[in-house]
Amino acid sequence: MARRVRTTVRITGIDRLRARLDELPEDIKEALKKGVKESSEAVRDDTRDGVRYGEGTLHDNVGIEYQEEGLVSTVGWHDDEHYYAAFHERGTRRFPAQPALGPALERERGRYAARLTAEVRKVLR
């Protein structure tokens, strides 16, 4: 039986707001969705830039899946055929790690809160 291996990261925009999400005005929710989308796309694009060319189809198949009406996203390789992305990210005994997704996520981590804040402030002005 084949083992399913997915190499992804999850970006959420509602962890602290989940309990009060229903109370938020629709325009605030839309602003949060926009911030999540921008961060997700930044991680995806940065990951693509970090994957070595010639490594199968990893470069072209970094994707984004959205859940929770766009307030949660999962960025990475979602298809089973891209199982080897995990080997590139973490390395093996014979193959040193050459991560692309992890570093992209770390670079976006500091900008994420600023993106959400900026989008909400635009609505509140």
How is the topology of this model organized?
Blueprint: E1 7-12, H1 26-50, E2 63-67, E3 72-77, H2 85-90, H3 101-124
Helix pairs in contact: 1-3
Pfam families: HK97-gp10_like
Organism: Streptomyces liliifuscus
InterPro entries: HK97-gp10_tail (IPR010064)
What are the key terms here?
single chain, alpha+beta, 3 strands, 125 residues, 3 helices
If you had to describe this structure to a student in words, what would you say it looks like?
The chain has 125 residues and is α+β, with helices and mostly antiparallel strands. The chain has helices spanning 26-50, 85-90, 101-124; strands at 7-12, 63-67, 72-77. It has a three-stranded antiparallel β-sheet. The termini are far apart. The model has no long low-confidence stretch (mean pLDDT 85).
Entry summary:
The chain has 125 residues and is of the alpha+beta class. The protein is 44% helix and 14% strand.
Q: What is the average of the pLDDT values? A: 85
User: Strand portion, in percent?
Assistant: 5-15%
The main β sheet shows up as: 3 strands, antiparallel
DSSP summary, beta strand count: 3
Q: Count the DSSP helices.
A: 3
**Uncertain spans:** none
| Class derived from helix and strand content | alpha+beta
